[in-house]
Amino acid sequence: MFFIRKYKKLFILIFIFIIVINLDIIADDSNIDVNEIFKIHSMAKNMPITWPFEDLKGTYIIRNSGIIDNPLTDGILLLTGIDIFADANSPVIATANGIIVDIRKSDSYEYEFGSGLTVEISHDYGFVTIYINLSEVFVNIGDEVIRGQEIGILCENTFFNEYFLHYKININSAFVSPEAIIIR
Q: Are the CB atoms for 52 and 121 separated by under 8 Å?
């Protein structure tokens, strides 16, 4: 059981890969409706399960969701997302197909400590992804984006003096820890 829990994301990725690669074989050898298989594949493209950087090399989580020291006060802060380190000016990509619903200057609201721009994307099934600490964006409100499309460039967060993307996932307006969803 431990083995299955530990490698759950890998099993899911392998399962999706097998379905996509072997559509004809599966359809020919069984009573499975090919349209149902395409529907599953389409659902996966619309769910934010991928890493927000195309190049995984040199990117890693520097702060997980949870309570952290507040850089503006001596207090603490609930981090509702993850901070992902990346090189300066790294392109940030959409993690699923969706529609750009907001682009705004980052501020002190919801941990957006005033560095750069924030992009918010609405996806199917109640998912919303939020990308914070962008110096430049390549999309506009109302644009449709596809998984892997560049949406902006990473900038330095002036409160931490680090280059990182603050990445958040909400489902039906409730925060969900990205670590539980992302497959890397």
A: no
Q: What is the mean pLDDT of residues 97-124?
A: 80
Per-residue pLDDT band for 26 (boundaries 50, 70, 90) equals: very low
* ∠ Cα 108 111 114 (to 5°): 45
| Domain encompassing residue 95 | 60-180
Global model pTM greater than 0.85: no
CA distances from 106 to 54, 131, 134, 175 (A): 23, 10, 9, 18
- Please state the domain count of the chain: 2
115 lies in the same domain as 170: yes
Q: Are residues 24 and 87 in the same domain?
A: no
